[in-house]
Design brief:
CATH superfamily of the largest domain: Winged helix-like DNA-binding domain superfamily/Winged helix DNA-binding domain
Radius of gyration: 22 Å
CATH topology of the largest domain: Arc Repressor Mutant, subunit A
Oligomer: single chain
Strand content: under 5%
Helix content: over 70%
Structural class: mainly alpha
Amino acid sequence: MAKNLEISFLLDFYGSMLTEKQRNVVEYYYNDDLSLAEIAAHVGITRQGVRDSIKRAEAQLFDMEQRLGLARRFREMKAGLEQIHLAAVYIEEYNQLTLRSPEVEQNVQCILQIAQSLCD
């Protein structure tokens, strides 16, 4: 994942753990695509101050992910749910072609509903 996307993703998970100033600066830089000069003018600090704040926040975000792994776990769960969905669809198709079991169909629908609700 590109660094900009990774920082934005980590900001979603850990942004509330940064100071308000750090969070705002990182959001301006990565999410709003403002330049260092634009951010500096907006928050009233120097460009170097903005850069330093961004670098400290990035380090904190990566450190939190290293320690807690919430973003990694989220990605793993999402991938697992996609696999569950694909397997349920396969079972549903197989059931329709061969078994024609109402119990299997009911369980497949239950699995698909749960997987969908967890993905939303």
